[in-house]
Structure formats: structure tokens, C-alpha cells
Amino acid sequence: MERAAGRRKAKPEQRGQEARGERDAPAPKRRLSAEDRRQEILTKSIEYFSKVGFGGGTRDLARHLGTTQPLLYRYFPNKDALIQEIYKVVFLDQWKPSWDALLTDRSRPLRARLQDFYEAYTDTILTPLWIRIYFFAGLKGEHINERYITLVEERLLSRIIREFHVEQGLEPPETIGNRDLEIAWNLQSGIFYYGVRKYIYHARTFLPKNEMISCALDLFFGGYAEILAQRRCEARAVAPPPAKPRTRSPRKTGPA
């Protein structure tokens, strides 16, 4: 009888434990569609490679994803295909079409256009993930950097040079010279290195980002305007003097 009573008293406690166990049990995972699963793999792969670099193998990547290599290869046939998709998502898709219109809108001063552009552009690229992916790709020898540098030169730096010439009242060059490209790269890399100091070296920055951009543009506009003025002076100095018009001496006529 006592044992039976003990068992009867234990039943409510057991029921409570069972109830708590049911509440503590994890909810079943929602089954993802193929597109959602692919996007999840891509997002976590970007996170993984930004931490370990592109030398990380697919086996460790699958472990990081909480999945298997066969499932990973179902969505991306090989590692190179995955890296190419990362390039598209992290670099190509981040370039906004509105930036093209902004850079070439001659109804506004170029200085104001570039301030607005670089504020928006750096909001996109000056992040720990973006910068780490960019550097790891370069160290591994992936072609991501080469392709992105080409994009920057064609869609940004060449436009800056041409728009600067137009604003100075000069004919924009059809082909951008090496010296001009390096001058534009000085502007671009100075702004980019602000993010490197902040997110890679964790070093102190001395100005808010927008003020830093303004300082960089001041240096670029002052320096490049002086360089173009010097070129004009040099071109005038070496130009041959205009040829004097030939005057015909009057013909002598003899007596009729």
C-alpha cells in the first residue's frame, strides 16, 4: 500500500517533468526551399571565407554550414563556382546603378557629386566582411581583385578624370593616361585605406568618415587642377609659333 501510494504521489511530478521536457524540446526546423537553402549556404560561406580566407577547404566549410559536402556540391558544383558567386554578391551586386547617374550628372558640381558618391560607396565597402574578403582573395591569388579593379577603373576613376576635365573647360580625354589613373587611384586608395586602418589594423582614425572624404577630395581637386594647369603651360611653351603669312611682292612691270 505504501509503495503504491508513493508511486501515486510521484505521478504528478513525473507529469510535470514530462511537460517541461516537451516545452524544452527544440522546435522542428522549417524546411527550406532550394533557393532559400542556396542563399543560406552562400551567406554562411561568405562569413566563413571572411574569417579563414579562401584557403579554407570545402570539408571544413560544410562543417561550418552544419551540412555535408554532397549537399554543398548539389548547389555549387565546385569551390570555384562558389567563389565566383561570392564575387557577384559581394562586389558586383553592391555597385548601385544610381551611382553611374550620380557621377555623370553635370547639373551639379563635380565636388558635390563625389562627396555624395563616396559617402554612399564607403557605406557599402568599408565593412569588416567586405575588406577581409577583398584581402583574402588577393592573398590567395583569386581573380576577384583583378576583376574588381577593372570595374573601379572603368566605372569610377576614368569617369572622375573625364568629368574633371569637362569642369575645367577642357576636352575630356578618350584614353586615360597612366599618370592620370595613378592620380585618381591616390584618391580612391586613400579613402579605402581609412577602412583598412579601422577594420584590419584596428587603429585609431582621426576624423569621422564623411570629413575624411571631404579632406581627400580637397587634396585631389587642388592637386589635379594644378597639374592640368601646368600641362597647359607646358603645351603652350613647346608649341611652335604660328607661321607668318607670306606676302607677295608686287610684280615689276617694264615700259609698255
Automatic annotation (TrEMBL):
<dbReference type="InterPro" id="IPR009057">
    <property type="entry name" value="Homeodomain-like_sf"/>
</dbReference>
<dbReference type="GO" id="GO:0003700">
    <property type="term" value="F:DNA-binding transcription factor activity"/>
</dbReference>
<dbReference type="Pfam" id="PF00440">
    <property type="entry name" value="TetR_N"/>
</dbReference>
<protein>
    <submittedName>
        <fullName>TetR/AcrR family transcriptional regulator</fullName>
    </submittedName>
</protein>
<keyword id="KW-0238">DNA-binding</keyword>
<dbReference type="GO" id="GO:0000976">
    <property type="term" value="F:transcription cis-regulatory region binding"/>
</dbReference>
<feature type="DNA-binding region" description="H-T-H motif">
    <location>
        <begin position="57"/>
        <end position="76"/>
    </location>
</feature>
<dbReference type="InterPro" id="IPR050109">
    <property type="entry name" value="HTH-type_TetR-like_transc_reg"/>
</dbReference>
<feature type="region of interest" description="Disordered">
    <location>
        <begin position="1"/>
        <end position="36"/>
    </location>
</feature>
<dbReference type="InterPro" id="IPR001647">
    <property type="entry name" value="HTH_TetR"/>
</dbReference>
<feature type="domain" description="HTH tetR-type">
    <location>
        <begin position="35"/>
        <end position="94"/>
    </location>
</feature>
